[in-house]
Every structure is written in C-alpha cells, then in structure tokens.
Design a protein that fits this description.
The chain is of the alpha+beta class. It is 17% helix and 26% strand. The chain has five helices and twelve strands. The strands form three sheets. Strands 1, 2, 3, 4, 5, 10 and 12 form a seven-stranded mixed sheet that branches. The chain has a three-stranded antiparallel sheet with strand order 9-6-11, with no helix packed on it. It has a two-stranded antiparallel sheet with strand order 7-8. The two termini are 34 Å apart.
Length: 253
C-alpha cells in the first residue's frame, strides 16, 4: 500500500510562512478513484450531525472494527500511521523540525528507538508516541456561507499538521486551506481566543492551497503554523479529506 510521503524529500519543503510541503497527484489515478469510491457514507459516522459545516471524524482505531470501512481504506489508514511512516517524516522534515523546536530535537535524534502506539487505542503510559490516521468530513451547508475553522494553531502536542484531499465533486466553492503569518509588530500574545484561534486582524494571508482531489499538505507544527479554512458557499456536498498525525506526551510550544 502507498504511503503519502514516499515520493517526498527535504528538497520539497517550502519555508514560508512555516516549513511545509504541498504535493499534487500524490497517488495514482486508479487508487485515488478507489479511495473516493470507497469513502464511507459520512451519515454513518458515529458523530454524524445534520448541522451545517461541522467536522466529522472516523479514526483508524474505529475503522479497524467498522463495517462501513473497506479493507482498502483500513490498509491505507494503517500504512499512513505506522512506524515507517513516522520515520519517513523524520527523514523529510528532521532538520526543519529541529529548526522550529531546538529544545525537542531529541524527538528526531532518537526517533527510531521510541515506542509507537495508536491514538484512541494505546496511551502514553504504554507508548512514547501515538500515531493516528482518520477519514474526515465537513458536512454540507444549507444556510449561509461559513468557514469550518478560521485561523488557528493545532494542538501543542502534535508533531505535524497534515491532510490529504479526497474531493469527489466539482460544484462547491471555497473550503481551501489558508496559510498565515503574523503581521509585523504583532505576536500571539493577546491575539489568541478560544484556546487556539488567532485574531484575523493581526494576520496576513500568505498562501492558499485549493481544495482539490489528490492534494497533500504537511507541515511542522509550531506556534507559527497558523492555518485555517476559507468559507464555503452553500452546497449539498461534503468536504472530504484524510488526516494523519503524531501526538507527543509533552507540549512542543
């Protein structure tokens, strides 16, 4: 099974506004079509709601015992959240990670010796790192246009930010990934609300990653990795994607 990272190397990294890679046509067309065709009906997700533009998630730990997840998807989720996947991240982003987090360079230097578990199945009492992959959906929008999540930073214990788009329609407008940086003279201090969201008036938009099928985004997570989702116009379609990540036992920033 294909790892989403296997064709990438450090030369693909863009440093602004924070270390990241955008890769297109990541998997071959046949596999992409199968993944899209076999993506489960989101109305069968355990957290399903009819509320507009709400994120739903089906984790790998759930998928392994779910009747709605195909063998192909189980294997794809596993391949993209196993030890080799973790080591591949380190080979690609090792130097960039150390640059962002000098105090946590041991994560890269000793990564081969760290014990790895699965989020929502194992705990940090048993393992030193918890990996995860998931199928994700933002529900359709029947009312006013909205953003599922504005500018924010991810969990302070997450090593990277990553998603793989599985768009299966052409009509919806919006839902693109937006990358930001702080405006000169601004800092996060005093500009964070609801725990992780950043006031938009202290930010400038640097880059937009369109919501297009077979597009991968991955970045080193840090206080500078500010990103959000552009508003989507009313649509009967769900926004479909896959995420994968690695949780650490202690905060990075």
């Amino acid at each position: 099974m294909v790892s989403l990272l296997e064709k990438l190397d450090a030369s693909d990294i863009e440093m602004e506004p924070f270390p990241h890679i955008v890769a297109r046509n990541v998997v071959d067309r046949d596999l992409l079509q199968r993944l899209i065709a076999e993506f489960p009906d989101f109305r069968q997700f355990s957290d399903f709601t009819e509320t507009d533009n709400t994120r739903l998630t089906l984790y790998r730990a759930q998928a392994s015992g779910s009747d709605i997840v195909s063998p192909l998807w189980r294997e794809f989720l596993e391949t993209n959240s196993d030890r080799e996947h973790l080591l591949h991240f380190a080979r690609i982003f090792g130097d960039a990670f150390k640059h962002c987090h000098p105090h946590a360079s041991v994560f890269i230097d000793k990564i081969e010796a760290l014990s790895v578990g699965l989020k929502s199945r194992d705990t940090f009492q048993e393992r030193q790192l918890l990996l995860n992959a998931a199928m994700d959906v933002n529900t359709p929008i029947r009312g006013a246009a909205s953003s599922v999540r504005g500018p924010h930073v991810d969990s302070v214990k997450k090593a990277w930010v990553a998603l793989f788009y599985l768009r299966d329609e052409d009509e919806s407008v919006g839902g693109d990934l937006e990358l930001y940086r702080l405006k000169p003279g601004h800092s996060l201090a005093g500009n964070v609300f609801d725990g992780s969201h950043i006031r938009s008036d202290c930010l400038e938009l640097v880059k937009t990653v369109p919501y297009e099928a077979n597009t991968l985004f991955i970045a080193v997570n840090s206080a500078h990795a500010i990103h959000g989702v552009s508003p989507r116009q009313p649509t009967p379609h769900a926004r479909k994607f896959m995420t994968f990540n690695c949780d650490l036992p202690n905060r990075l920033f």
